Amino acid sequence: MEFKNTKSIFTQIGDDVKDKIMEGEYAEEGKIPSTRELAGIVGVNPNTTIKAYAVLQQEGIIYTQRGKGYFVSQGAKATIVKNKQAEFLNEVLPETVDQALKLGITFDELQNYLKDLYHEEK
User: Fold this and answer.
1) Among residues 25, 34, 92, 122, which one has the fewest Cβ atoms lying within 10 Å of its Cβ?
2) Residue 39: how many CB atoms within 10 A of its CB?
3) What is the three-class DSSP state of 25?
4) Which backbone phi and psi does 62 adopt, to 5 degrees?
């Protein structure tokens, strides 16, 4: 895993776990790697993954079963999607529109570009 300087490492690890849940790599009610296993996979101190898992537990994304490990919570995918949509609509999109306005990109130009991107994805 390559880390960026824009967010803390434990946040990036948590985001990666969320992405894997959204993509179906980690199934709801399914077991996920232990903090030690994940630390070895991503090459960080186990305390960093412990902190990431603690945040995910507080958000209700994962839970622990004593002696068995960590599991993905029922409804975690829907919660993640809802939160990411809100973040996109309330933070990312307004910044994008602000930048487009500063660059003199018109609404029609932006709309046409978005249409092209959506057609490429289909």
Assistant:
1) 122
2) 19
3) coil
4) -130, 165
